[in-house]
């Protein structure tokens, strides 16, 4: 039996953990060096509720104007979007509201969105806590993530690509929420596709 194909798109600020999250799920190992991606994808075969799924994972970049023009090209055909931020970088949660939610809502409709707190292992890390305290900040609390998720109409999940905590559960839950009949389609305006 052929697996059902699904597409997951991952967005968020640079260096919040998107690439590591996808690599850990796809390959099972944590990348030890930071390699910024422009657009990258992996395909993973998983089983959810007895159904074989071929899950295409699309990694996007937020590093520059070039990537800002390319990123909208990955949204068509998507079944779910992960909007990622880093628990040790509070500004990345601010950017969820200011940048990522408007972009995702502009380019998608009728598909689930998940807010994902990455780098969960750093929330209680003494060095992280100390460095953020020097700037009058603290790691993002679970309740803060939940509040933002509720505000944007998303499901909230946290994970750590480094330790693997919550990674598999994240992808199983997102895959369960995908409706095969509701793949994102580009918005049409007067016969043209707006991208």
From TrEMBL:
PANTHER family reported in the protein's UniProt record: RHO FAMILY GTPASE
Gene3D superfamilies: P-loop containing nucleotide triphosphate hydrolases
Protein name per UniProt: Uncharacterized protein
Family the entry assigns: Belongs to the small GTPase superfamily. Rho family.
SMART domains in the record: RAB, RAS, RHO
Entry-linked SUPFAM superfamilies: P-loop containing nucleoside triphosphate hydrolases (SSF52540)
Keyword Nucleotide-binding: yes
Originating species: Serendipita vermifera MAFF 305830
Record keywords: GTP-binding, Methylation, Nucleotide-binding
GO terms of biological process kind: small GTPase-mediated signal transduction
GO MF terms held by the record: GTP binding; GTPase activity
InterPro entries in the cross-refs: P-loop_NTPase (IPR027417), Small_GTP-bd (IPR005225), Small_GTPase (IPR001806), Small_GTPase_Rho (IPR003578)
């Amino acid at each position: 039996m052929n697996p059902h194909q699904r597409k997951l798109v991952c967005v968020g600020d640079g260096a919040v953990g998107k690439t590591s999250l996808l690599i850990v799920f796809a390959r099972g190992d944590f990348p030890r060096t930071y390699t910024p991606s422009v657009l990258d994808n992996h395909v993973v075969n998983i089983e959810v509720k007895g159904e074989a799924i071929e899950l295409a994972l699309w990694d996007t970049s937020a590093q520059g104007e070039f990537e800002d023009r390319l990123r909208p090209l990955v949204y068509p055909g998507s079944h779910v979007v992960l909007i990622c931020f880093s628990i040790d970088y509070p500004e990345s949660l601010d950017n969820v509201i200011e940048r990522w939610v408007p972009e995702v809502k502009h380019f998608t409709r009728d598909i689930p969105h998940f807010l994902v707190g990455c780098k969960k292992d750093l929330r209680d890390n003494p060095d992280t806590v100390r460095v953020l305290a020097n700037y009058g900040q603290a790691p993002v609390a679970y309740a803060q993530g939940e509040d933002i998720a509720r505000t944007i109409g998303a499901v909230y999940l946290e994970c750590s690509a480094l330790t693997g905590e919550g990674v598999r559960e994240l992808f199983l839950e997102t895959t369960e929420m995908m409706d095969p009949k509701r793949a994102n389609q580009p918005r049409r305006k007067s016969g043209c596709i707006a991208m």
